[in-house]
Structure formats: C-alpha cells, structure tokens
Amino acid sequence: MTAPVYNLHNHTPFSDGAYTIDEICEAHLDLKDVKVTGLAIADHLFRTPSSREIKSARDFQAVFRNETRQYVEAVHAARERWQGKLDIVCGCEINWPLNKDHFDVIRTMLDGVDFVLFEFLDWAALTQLANQARRWPCPVGLAHTDVAKQFPNTSIDQVVRTMSNARIFYEVNTKLMPLEEHAAWFRALPNHRVRLTIGTDTHDDLSCLKTIRPMVDFVVEYGLEEKLFVPRARREEPVSQNS
Question: Can you tell me the mean pLDDT for 3-12?
Fold first, then answer.
C-alpha cells in the first residue's frame, strides 16, 4: 500500500487506556512490518470518572466541559511534540446508549476534536445518527461495528446506503470481528460513498498494533484503499490518504 497508514483508535489513561500518548507514539514508531504516518487518540468522552448523575444540560456542561477542553489541549500538545515524526489526530469515542439524550450539548463541546467514533449502536440508533450526522462539527463514524450482529434484521444494502447518504465512515477493526468472516460487508463498500479508517482500539495491550499490517493488507485485497481517509474537523476538508 502506497498511501500513508494511520491508526485512528487509541485510548490513554484519560479514559480506560494504560499507555500515555507518548508511549503510544513510540510503540507505533517501533513497528517493523509497517510504517505508520500518524495516529489518533480517541478516548472515551462524557463518561469519565468525575461523572455524576446528570439531570440537565447545565449539569452535563458542568461535569464535562472542562474535562473535554483539557483532553483536547493534551492531544494538541502531543501533536506539537511529535510534529515531523507522527501526525497526531484528535478524536473521541462516544457511547451511544449512555449519551443519546445529550447530543445537542455535546456538539457544542467538540471544538478541536477532529472526529467522533460511536459505539454500541443498533439499527434505530444508526438511523438517528444518519439524520443528524451533518449537524456534528466533525466527521462521525462507527467504531468496531459487527454489521451482522448489530443490525441483524437489516440488509447490508440498506446499512451501506444509510451510511453513504449520511457520510458516516466505518472503522476497519479486527478486535471484535474477524474481517474474513464479514466479506459480504466489505464487498458491498466499493460502489458506495462510505469512507474507511483503520483502528486497533488500543487499551492495555500494545501487541494489538501488530494487527495494523493485516488490516492494511485486507483493505488492499478488497480494493478499498481509495476509501481510506484521515477525518478532520469541519473547518478543514477531510484529507485523503491518497493525496
């Protein structure tokens, strides 16, 4: 694969990861079988240890606004530290069931966040996300999503069309689903406008970084290389990894 390689799903101690941003960066540079151009920190937001019962939008902001700002500042500082060695992208992961009633306020708190990964969506949630996707200040995508399990009563064609129309991207991730078992899903993607990212969902085991090379090879094998992209906040156009 000639395009730059990015691993866009890594967690730090800010949420439930074991390694600092710098340790994660060093581990990526130490990889022998693949050259990584950049990575994203995509910690869980809006469910951190200081959270308490939320009764209103004001409560939500009181609990999470400063935390979110501190998180973004930490990732942006790492971007400066690693400039010239790795491109650091600032993402986040959001639990859909936990936060679905707070999206209006969450969207106002994402300044400096380049993309959002959503997890634990069922079909009803995906259709809701599709209806609001373009109101988010950055690209939105699905994290480690097993389409067959999470949308069992919906055809692959309907899922891919829904994502395509809403410009929802899809994360290629082997952590929860062997990719070869989902060939039908990946064969449906070339004819639709669903863009892709690669992510390892790094938490407490850096050996997961060894899956980057197989995921890159899988993407190339299925002719999906042109769909890989690096999501950026709306103030910037998403940058193709093939540009």
Answer: 96
In a 10 Å sphere around its CB, with 0-12 CB exposed, 13-18 middle and 19+ buried, how is residue 236 labelled? Answer: exposed
H-helix or E-strand spanning residue 24: helix 21-29
Domain range list for the chain: 5-240
CB 159 within 8 A of CB 192: no
Contact between residue 142 and residue 171 where contact means Cβ atoms under 8 Å apart: yes
Strand partners, 5: 36
Q: Is the pLDDT of residue 238 over 70?
A: no
Q: Considering only CA atoms, which of 27, 21, 71 is closest in space to residue 45? A: 71
> What would you report as the CA-atom Rg of the chain, rounded to the nearest whole angstrom?
17
Q: Reduce the DSSP state of residue 148 to 3 states and report it.
A: helix
pLDDT tens column, 140-185:
999 999 999 999 999 999 999 999 999 999 999 998 788 989 999 9
Q: 12 and 20 in contact (C-beta within 8 Å)?
A: yes
For residues 197 and 133, what is the distance between their CA atoms, to the nearest angstrom? Answer: 17
Q: pTM value? A: 0.92
Task: Taking the CA atoms of 8, 10, 177 and 117 in sequence, report the sign of the dihedral they define.
Answer: negative
Nearest to 104 by CA among 57, 70, 44: 57
Confirm if 192 and 160 have CB atoms less than 8 A apart.
yes
Secondary structure (3-state) at 142: strand
Amino acid at 75: V
- What's the CATH superfamily of 5-240? Metal-dependent hydrolases (3.20.20.140)
Rounded-to-integer distance, Cα 79 and Cα 89, Å: 7
